[in-house]
Amino acid sequence: MSENRVPTVVSTVPFEDQKPGTSGLRKAVPVFQQPHYLENFVQSVFDSLPDHAGQTLVVGGDGRFLNVEATQTILRMAAANGIGRVLVGRSGLLSTPAVSCLIRKYKAYGGFVLSASHNPGGAEGDFGIKYNIGNGGPAPESLTETIFAASKTISRFLTVDAPHCDLAHLGDCRLGNTAVQVIDPVADYAALMESLFDFDAISALLKTPGFRMRFDAMHAVTGPYATEILEKRLGAPAGSVVNAVPLPDFGGGHPDPNLTHAADLVAALRGKDALDFGAASDGDGDRNMILGANAFVTPSDSLAIIAANSGLVPGYAGRLTGIARSMPTSRAADRVAAALGVPCFETPTGWKFFGTLLDAGKATFCGEESFGTGSDHVREKDGLWAVLYWLNILAKTRKPVGEILAAHWRAHGRDYYTRHDYEAIDADAAQALMRDLRSAHLTGRNLGGREVTLHDDFAYTDPVNGEKTAGQGIRVGFADGARLVFRLSGTGTSGATLRIYIERFEAAPERQGLDPQTALADLIAAAKEIAGIESRTGRTAPDVIT
Ligand code: VG1
Ligand code: CO
Questions:
Q1: Which residues line ligand 1 (CB under 6 A)?
Q2: What residue ranges of the chain are covered by domains with CATH 3.30.310.50?
Q3: What is the CATH number of domain 8-185?
Q4: For 167-210, how does the pLDDT look when each residue is reduced to its tens digit (9 = 90+)?
Q5: Could you tell me the pLDDT band of residue 465, with boundaries at 50, 70 and 90?
Q6: If one looks up domain 414-545 in CATH, what number appears?
Q7: Residue 160: pLDDT above 80?
């Protein structure tokens, strides 16, 4: 290998479809396998970043099909584009929150995460790439727009002609003037977790005779993280972490920690012999699902309970400044914020909108209904962090999950909540449905006994930098506080996915024990009717209910 490697300039032509969605660019694997597809996007990122020469980048992914090849491609392009140093996880592995942690800890310029998150993997599945900025968080809209614009005019990309770096072992590799360091993907992240939580208390809980837990890594990236932290450092019995080996196709599963896709785990937390605690994470480790014996914690409630109990957690006690939630997330967190006298911010869907609030110290905790919770410790949502937070609460209170949930509802009221997803529907039909819903005259109408008092398309002005974002979902609010939200997914890769978010508030403790589908039945029916789901999509029931 020559030391001063001259970049190779490769001619290319633009692809028209490289617009990043809610969380990066996601496409079916064959789309990414087209010659130059990945290279064009990566070069568009470099071309959109001023002053990247000589800087440090972090690169890693969730282990899915194409992860390692894509990592090698990015390393060569980083060298050709004059990056000084690249930190890459061993075997190309890094969870999304670990990338965020590393960027912050080592003051890197930014990083690439190779993941399509909860979308299935393998040769027939999806692949994705997202760029994170120097605060460790997802590129803001302004930058993703610049990248998209660059991708539409690109005519060349830069690479170096070099053998692959050995990613299987820790150590250094030089690509021209660029130092590539293959690092332990877990160590820095595990140290950060240890600095936030009461590991002694959690360890005592996990070693308590009779306490039984399971963490399902779904053959995705959190396996090595959970094994190191839960089993090795905290002493959970061997085998507490299941499906712990990351596989390129996630073992054929759908690495989405919800009631549908983590069905085995859900079953183990049901019935007489239910485990005490169950949790799962998604492909790239930023989502989480929390379960107790015969208890499911909705992500919206999880955010509220995390905020309400911050006094129990060493890294957060006495320093809560505010809470932020995405618009479709339930108002449970707002009630806690009001009770604590701190602000609650309502942002568009996607973690990129939390970054400015976290950087400005306006929010300590953030959450999304889509199994995402996190805090100012990094700038991404963080699955294992949420699991450790819940274990910390359990260790300090020694109460079952179900009791913590019921006590929270008694104190603050319960926001019954559900999300219905209609997947892979015809894209034109979905657009028409949203357009008609937007222009319908709903305000003042009576729907199933409720008066509509709000009907708009959510728009947001970032309170820190003033950036505006419109068209973020149609809200239909009722006089009694109930709410319907309709929006189209920005992470799917085939057709359109319609998400309907349904909620209502229940203050009376004696009426807080219903199944959400029952408690929300009339609102679910109203949502189907005003959107004309059946006539427009041909569907009678959603594909996924959470
Ligand atoms: C979904 C979720 C959103 C989340 C996003 C990325 O987006 O609804 O809350 O931020 O996925 O999460 P959409 O546009 O499909 O509704 V992840 O874990 O996939 O990076
Ligand atoms: Co994810």
A1: 22-23, 117-118, 282, 286-287, 326, 349-351, 368, 370, 372, 489-491, 499
A2: 414-545
A3: 3.40.120.10
A4: 999 999 999 899 999 999 999 999 999 999 999 999 999 999 99
A5: very high
A6: 3.30.310.50
A7: yes
What are the residue ranges of CATH 3.40.120.10 in the chain?
Answer: 8-185, 189-412
Residue ID of nearest Cα to ligand 1 atom 18 = 117
**Phi-psi group of 434: left, alpha or beta (phi > 0 → left; psi -120 to 50 → alpha; rest → beta):** alpha
2 is catalytic: no
CA of 30 to the centre of ligand 2 (A): 21
| Distance from C-alpha of 158 to C-alpha of 297, rounded to nearest angstrom | 48
Task: Tell me the whole-structure pTM to 2 decimals.
Answer: 0.94
Q: How far from 407 is each of 31, 187, 215, 335, CA to CA, in Å?
A: 49, 36, 25, 14
Q: According to the 3-state scheme, what is the secondary structure of 255-311? A: CCCCCCCCHHHHHHCCCCCCCCEEEEECCCCCEEEEEECCEEECHHHHHHHHHHCHH
Q: What is the rounded end-to-end Cα distance, in angstroms, of the chain?
A: 53
Which entry of 23, 48, 95, 117 is annotated as an active-site residue?
117
Which CATH number is 189-412 given? Answer: 3.40.120.10
Closest ligand 1 atom to residue 282 Cα is 18
Side-chain-side CA neighbours of residue 143 (13 Å): 20
**What is the whole-number distance in angstroms between the Cα of residue 204 and the centre of ligand 2?**
30
Tens-digit pLDDT profile for residues 80-123: 999 999 999 999 999 999 999 999 999 999 999 999 999 999 99
Q: Whose CA is nearest to atom 8 of ligand 1?
A: 370
How large is the average pLDDT for residues 318-344? 98
In this prediction, residues 205-216 reach a mean pLDDT of 97
Question: Ligand 1 atom 16: the closest Cα is on which residue?
Answer: 489
pLDDT in tens, 375-433: 999 999 999 999 999 999 999 999 999 999 999 999 999 999 999 999 999 999 999 99
350 CA closest ligand 1 atom index: 10
Distance in Å, CA 307 to ligand 1 centroid? 22
CA distance 116 to 64: 9
Dihedral (CA of 436, 437, 441, 446) sign: positive
pLDDT in tens, 59-74: 999 999 999 999 999 9
* For ligand 1, atom 6: residue with the closest CA: 23
